[in-house]
From TrEMBL:
Pfam families: DnaJ, DnaJ_C. This is J domain-containing protein. InterPro entries: DnaJ_C, DnaJ_domain, DnaJ_domain_CS, HSP40/DnaJ_pept-bd, J_dom_sf. It comes from Candidatus Woesebacteria bacterium GWA1_41_8. PANTHER family: DNAJ HOMOLOG 1, MITOCHONDRIAL-RELATED (PTHR43096:SF52). GO terms for cellular component: cytoplasm. Residues 3-65 form the J domain. GO terms for molecular function: unfolded protein binding; zinc ion binding. Keywords: Chaperone, Metal-binding, Repeat, Zinc, Zinc-finger. GO terms for biological process: protein refolding.
Length: 292
């Protein structure tokens, strides 16, 4: 995760006027249309301004940005809100999310650099990718071929952060349509996640149901379960009730770039047999006599 304050050359307590002034200076120096411009640095400064110029996004960056560490969600191509461990929808891009900032404000700054000429912006491009449940939990990388009438065919590597949800969006800055003398559009990647046959995601935790026999509920025991980390043995305590939830620590969803993870919660489903053999009925009758 890059330090946006350092990129703009301002203090973490800088005012909005100071941030805008710093960005205006960098945009003037690095805009690719100017002699000696630097497109990479211009994009970097624009991304920093996109976050720090917005009060809410800046507050979330200040709260979570320092813990994002070395996560590769940025991947050199665009800012990814999941690096901070919060939901894409916090940024208000439709139902998914993405980093948006006041395009008019940016346009005003750039137009002042170019003598009032409004800088054109290329079209945004959208693609879909499908992930397995495990890929969505641990993150992955995908290569997709972009082929649009607005964009020359190219292969793009997409870094998917851990814990992404079905329907969320990843924004890759500057990977959309490119206009000569203008600002490139963005690439929006919509993520589809295939359902897991057993596991469900709830925040940073995973949830599953486990069928156990009546004897296992009464006497306790051990039972193998399949997790995303492989098979493990779950200890079932004696006297387990139907619906009781057992927690397996650290087998949930990763917390951003840290080594911490949520938990796995296993709900006990006590299976009552519909039919009993003569021997089973006799055994139950004996238990009944004992008050069980």
């Amino acid at each position: 995760m890059k330090d946006y304050y350092k990129i703009l050359g301002v203090d973490r307590k800088a005012s909005q006027d100071e941030i805008k002034k710093a960005f205006r200076k960098l945009a003037h120096a690095y805009h690719p249309d100017k002699s000696g411009g630097d497109e990479a640095k211009f994009k970097e400064a624009s991304e920093a301004y996109a976050i720090l110029s917005d009060k809410n996004k800046r507050a979330q960056y200040d709260a979570f940005g320092s813990s994002a560490g070395g996560r590769s969600g940025f991947s050199g191509a665009g800012f990814n809100p999941n690096d901070f461990g919060f939901d894409f929808s916090n940024f208000g891009f439709g139902s998914g999310g993405g980093v948006n900032f006041d395009a008019g404000d940016l346009g005003d700054i750039l137009s002042s650099i170019f003598g009032g000429r409004r800088v054109r912006r290329g079209r945004d491009i959208a693609v879909d990718i499908e992930l397995s449940f495990q890929e969505s939990i641990f993150g992955t990388e995908r290569k997709v071929v972009i082929n649009s009438k607005f964009v020359k065919q190219k292969e793009v590597k997409i870094t998917v952060p851990p814990g992404i949800d079905d329907g969320q969006m990843i924004r890759m800055s500057g990977m959309g349509e490119t206009l000569e003398g203008g600002v490139p559009g963005d690439l929006y990647v919509k993520v589809r996640v295939r359902r897991h046959p057993v596991l469900r995601k709830e925040g940073f935790n995973l949830v599953m149901d486990l069928n156990i026999k009546l004897s296992e509920a009464l006497l306790g025991g051990e039972k193998p379960i399949q997790t995303l980390d492989g098979e493990l043995t779950l200890k079932i305590p004696a006297g387990t009730n139907h619906g009781m939830i057992l927690r397996v620590k650290g087998k949930g969803v990763p917390f951003g770039a840290t080594s911490k993870r949520g938990d796995l919660y296993v709900r006990m489903i006590v299976k009552i047999p519909e039919k009993l053999s003569k021997e089973e009925k006799k055994a139950v009758e004996e238990l009944k006599k004992l008050g069980l």
